[in-house]
Amino acid sequence: MLTLPILPSIVMTHAATSGLPAPKVLPLTVSHQNLLADAQAAVLKLFPEWQAEDLDLFQCKDGITNKLVRCTNRKTNLAVLIRAYGKNSELLIDRNQEVTNIRVLSQLGLCPPLYGKFNNGLVYGYVPGEVVHVSQLSDPHISRLVAHRLAEWHRVTIPGAKTAKLFVTLNQWLGEVRAVYANPSTAGTHDDPKLARFHTLFDLEALEQEMNFLRVALERINSPVVFSHNDLLSANVIYNAVDDSTNFIDHEYASYNYRGFDIGNHFAEFAGFDCDYSLYPDRATQVEWLRNYLEAERRGKDSDQAAPVTEAEVDELYQEVNKFYLASHIYWGFWAMVQASFSDIDFDYMGYARMRFDEYHRRRDELLAL
Fold it and tell me: Considering only the top CATH level, what class is 131-368?
């Protein structure tokens, strides 16, 4: 089981990390076009004692970045996941950081082990349970478990400088967008109609100005820098009814970041990929979630002398989170514009980006006035 008690502090130093077992490196590629067969080949190379006839392979199709296969050995009842990176996704994701994240979190019991690396992906342990549906994010019991688990994550310390990555990442992604859409000869899957649609939907100069405007506004907030998941959508939350726990999967975007961003981004995901922002949690739902989070955070710091959480503390966090909620739209909007240039996954990234930017503009003045 992956469930842990709430701990007073969870720290992994560089020395401790260097002592972790390194994943086995496999000199092979898992093709998106030959996904199941290549995934099986990777698993058999990694676990030579396994037999092909004992394996069940299933493609998980919820993701919009990578290709994912679950492989279960019927004899041992061990399940692993084989993730083949999305095309050119290294432009968006620091794959070395991802490996560090998994190794640290695994050592702390917050995720399964990393078994192996291949040329374009990873093989790692499967988290038992059911993927949470977007409609369950507002369920009081599930939301309490998520709040408690995220408070636990936010106490993790990983190697490297403890600085927020939000605006560093946004500037990097904006640079990738400019490189592609300002130069049609750049590598990518874009064509003339795609370029025309891009220039119809987006004004890069205006978006950069909004990013800088928001940065100034958010830097006035004293949001703590914590180890953040940064992609806590419903599909990345697993509920295990056996021990009544939630665990988080997919750690490729995890980094140090602002607490307000990690929580605000989670609240944005109540809308799902359809971006139905009528589902954004109302104040009462948020207040209950935030109170659960603060109580778990306080218990983790001092379980014997945890003072009650006050209304003022909840209200302060409510304001922080809702202002950083705006940043999640800029973040995933830029991400989607980069994806639109090269991803081979069937998803309307440009349309998704436009919906994120529209919600940003719709709520900006209201939320910054809190």
Answer: alpha beta
Token pair listed for 72:
């279960």
**1 confidence band (pLDDT: 50, 70, 90):** very low
Using CA atoms, how far apart are residues 284 and 13, in angstroms rounded to an integer? 39
- Residue 4 and residue 228: Cα distance in Å, rounded? 18
Query: How is the beta sheet containing 114-118 ordered, strand by strand?
Result: 24-26, 114-118, 121-125, 78-84, 67-73, 55-60
Instruction: Please report which confidence band the pLDDT of residue 61 belongs to, taking 50, 70 and 90 as the band edges.
Output: confident
Count the neighbouring beta carbons within 10 Å of the beta carbon of residue 333: 27
| Residues 129-148 pLDDT 10s | 999 999 999 999 999 999 99
Question: 18-93+111-128: what CATH class?
Answer: alpha beta
Map residue 219 onto helix, strand or coil: helix
| pTM of the shown model | 0.91
Buried b (16+ CB within 10 A) or exposed e, 62-98: eebbbbbbebbbeeeeebbbbbbbbbbbebbbbeebb
Task: Let me know if the fold of 18-93+111-128 is the same as that of 131-368.
Answer: no
Between 159 and 324, the higher pLDDT residue: 324
